[in-house]
Amino acid sequence: MTADRWTQVVRQQLGLGRLLPLGLALDGAWITEEAAGSVLRRETAAVEGVRLGALRIALADPDLAGTPAVPPPPSALPPGPLRVTAEFRASVDPTAPGVEPLPAVAARLRLAVVSAATRVLGLDVAEVDLRVTDLSEDKDEDEAPAAPPAGDVRTSPVPKDPEEARIASAVLAVPGVTRLTDSLGRPVHVESAPPATGTALPRRHVRVELEVSGDERAVDVARTVRAAVTEAAQDEPSVAVLVTAVTEGTRHR
Question: What are the strands, taking DSSP E only, across 24-124?
């Protein structure tokens, strides 16, 4: 089994899904498919008469994908427009006069998905493919998303290496960062500079993994984190940010 295939298997076991490009190529940021999907379900829950089901996010056209400005996380997708493919349930009464046709219902949901992806996360969503899987006349059958258990307060893993700890402190000071995470191994991963080749000066690479608040646009937080890491590291390394979770914003509480 190749290293990339092993990474994919482990990531699937962890439930992270694909690592999606967040923002543009120059932003050097990614978000897990699981985190993005949770946000889309949460943000579209207010759309009357529908409920998102199974959801997948991938590149709209892999052949048109760009090149990331920094080394990406293992097996992460390259930057490029995304396609959201989702199933949904619709609550309708087929016998009611003036009932809204399904294409109109799907159009409302599609608009909500694109809006949430852009406004809350900063994903570049070019296409949304929807498929209705169930029609129900009872709106009460749609269950609200489960709330997290009371008292479930998760803390940031603490790096033991002094430099990693310094970088971690700088990241946690960024507004919108709620905690560090370690789904891919370590919250702060520092790679040594490769051997010098040609006239280009080799640079170290730093990858940080974190959770952000739903009150801040994820890609904006990632940009600020990259600047904070560069300042904390002092030798201007390349920096990649991986968002693994987005908490519920106060506007939903």
Answer: 29-32, 50-59, 82-91
The pTM of this model reads 0.84
Residue 149's pLDDT is what? 43
User: With the C-alpha atoms ordered 205, 209, 212, 217, is the resulting torsion angle positive or negative?
Assistant: positive
Hey, which CATH number is domain 31-141, 2.30.42.10, 3.30.70.1350, 1.20.1050.10, 3.20.20.70?
3.30.70.1350
pLDDT at 235: 87
pLDDT at 72: 94
Which residue has tokens 């709620």?
Answer: 178
Three-state SS for 26? helix
Domain ranges of the chain: 31-141, 162-252
Predicted local distance difference test score (pLDDT) of residue 150 = 41
The alpha carbon dihedral of 244, 248, 249, 250 has a sign of negative
Options 3.40.50.11030, 1.10.10.10, 3.30.70.1350, 3.30.110.30; CATH for 162-252 is 3.30.70.1350
Q: What is the pLDDT of residue 110?
A: 95
Query: CB neighbours (10 Å) of residue 186?
Result: 19
Radius of gyration of the chain (CA): 20
Q: Which two tokens stand for residue 37?
A: 């999907």
Which stretches in the chain have pLDDT values below 70? 1-14, 92-98, 137-153, 194-201, 251-253
Residue type, 86: A
> What distance in Å separates the CA atoms of residue 109 and residue 85, rounded to the nearest whole number?
12
**Whole-angstrom Cα distance, residue 206 to residue 197?**
20
Between CA 144 and CA 114 the distance in angstroms is: 21
